[in-house]
Design a protein that fits this description.
3 domains, 9 strands, 60% helix, Beta Polymerase, domain 2
Length: 358
């Protein structure tokens, strides 16, 4: 399907067609052609009618192009990336190929694109947009697309916060989720970094298709992408901390298990020794002829076990701090630092009081 939007002095008109459109004839008019899921022959025909560079048209058929900008004599070829949610709530990054001249804007893509659909709905609802050139229209699309990254990054941060709780509990699902989110972050950065450079280049372009207002718009979009990249870097660092927290929680659980097993082994070892000695096949066993011998031996073993348990407890081998108690302690370090001057003054007052009493 091909959507054609024609801007004239009287406003904007929209036509849906399956035929290749022609360039506008009126000197003061310009056109936006949105090509969706069309055959290469149709795109080549549009390229010939609008005088596009044939090599750039052929490049638009490739699906692995990174964001780029190429300035030709009469037009600018731009490759941009959008984003959409694919299977399993994972992200895919579709490609949008753009050909921009002084009086035309041509966008080529597969399937619906959120930013382009938003612009179309604005045109349909309001009967136009406050844009006066193809470059301003592309800048408006870029602003809309850049704003769509914000809720996605917020969702990544929210899921990273939820993973912190899972990591503290040493949930094995944490590793899978962390690696999946890191994949999404890398996926986003792979498109955002070169796209940020594209918008920077457009903000400094001196091509005839660009004007001062559109250059300012692209500078705003570049700043928007820079902030998104900074947020992604912070999110990636947070995921690294979550993974380290998970590993620490697993190590703490393992240490706790080994500690308990060691303590019980240490307690049972002397008891087993005593039971083994008294269970040997000798004729004369101490206390064998005494009716309280067995009870005394069991009591001795109980006293020994309790004594060892108390000893291990006092040494801190049992009942050490746990990682799941970490959230209760968050902020205590900052609190102690903040109240340190108050404590120093209080200690000084106490010292003066003791001196006066003396």
């Amino acid at each position: 399907m091909i959507h054609v939007y024609h801007w004239t002095a009287d406003g904007v008109t929209m036509v849906e067609t399956e035929e290749a459109p022609r360039p506008p004839r009126e000197p003061s008019s310009w056109i936006w052609v949105d090509v969706v899921d069309e055959e290469p022959d149709t795109i080549r025909r549009i390229g010939r009618d609008f005088g596009l560079d044939p090599v750039a048209v052929d490049e638009s058929f490739a699906e692995t192009n990174l964001p780029l900008v190429e300035e030709h004599l009469d037009d600018i070829f731009v490759v941009l990336h959008g984003f959409s949610t694919g299977t399993g709530d994972r992200m895919t990054i579709p490609e949008i190929d753009v050909f921009m001249g002084a009086r035309f804007l041509i966008t080529v893509h597969d399937g619906p694109q959120g930013s382009i659909e938003h612009v179309m709905s604005r045109i349909a609802e309001e009967g136009g947009l406050p844009v006066s050139s193809p470059a301003e229209l592309l800048g408006f699309m870029a602003l809309v697309a850049g704003r769509r990254y914000a809720p996605l990054i917020l969702e990544l941060e929210r899921r990273a916060d939820a993973l912190e709780e899972m990591a503290i509990q040493a949930d094995p699902q944490t590793v899978i989720e962390v690696h999946a989110l890191r994949r999404d972050v890398v996926f986003l950065r792979r498109g955002l970094v070169p796209q940020f450079e594209v918008y920077e280049d457009l903000s400094e372009s001196t091509h005839e298709a660009m004007d001062d207002h559109s250059r300012k718009m692209f500078a705003r979009v570049a700043l928007q992408h820079q902030r998104s990249l900074q947020a992604l870097e912070a999110g990636r660092a947070l995921l690294g901390f979550v993974l380290e927290t998970y590993r620490g929680a697993v190590a703490e659980q393992t240490n706790e298990i080994m500690r308990v097993l060691t303590v019980f082994s240490a307690i049972m070892l002397p008891l087993t020794l005593i039971a083994g000695l008294w269970g040997m096949n000798f004729v004369e066993i101490p206390g064998d002829d005494n009716p309280w011998g067995f009870r005394g031996l069991v009591g001795l073993m109980a006293i020994g076990a309790i004594s060892l348990w108390l000893y291990f407890s006092r040494r801190g081998f049992i009942g050490a701090p746990r990682l799941r108690e970490l959230p209760k302690a968050v902020g205590l370090g900052l609190f102690n630092i903040g109240t340190a001057p108050i404590r120093v003054v209080a200690e000084g007052i106490r010292g003066l009081g003791k001196t006066d009493e003396g």
